[in-house]
Write a structure and sequence with these properties.
189 residues; alpha+beta; Alpha-Beta Plaits; 2 domains; four-stranded antiparallel beta sheet; elongated
Amino acid sequence: MSKKFAYVFTTGGIGPTHDDITAQSISKAFKLKYEFHKEAYAILEKYYGRNKFNEGRKKMAKMPRGSKLIYNPSSAAPGFMTKNVLSLPGVPSILNSMIENSKKYLVNGLKVHSKTLNLYTIESNISKQLGQIQKKYEKAVDIGSYPFFRLGKIGVSIVTRSTSSTKLKLVNKDLLSLIKTKKIKILKI
């Protein structure tokens, strides 16, 4: 997965119990030594105090050699990044608190622009034309079609996404032409 994607996120398996094997597994996958991270060890020792810093808690300071820490504002035990793999805890509230500290390791991609048209129609009424428009812009714009039921009426949300605002405008111009030709009502939200 690391070779196939820009980033890989793991959640869970970095705690103190026997079944927490994420750090060991990543060490093995990258052929890195599984060892105590000095800074992680110091953070946890300070947090728990020497008398309560038992073997299970010490285990949370072990990770692949050379890992970068992802600081934990909730419960001290850090996550870590090895190459392009970010390993975070599985407890949702703790994971959520660590997202901000993960961002410094991520490189921003291109901004994706999005536009949504909510239409009072059914998908099958526009599916052929949507396919044609998608084919015309297949490399530059993604078009999604999502049925809905609102206020007792059936409709379709057409969502267009692209890194090119120019191409997005062209696609939406084609969509508005289709809507006009088919005499479809646009739902104003």
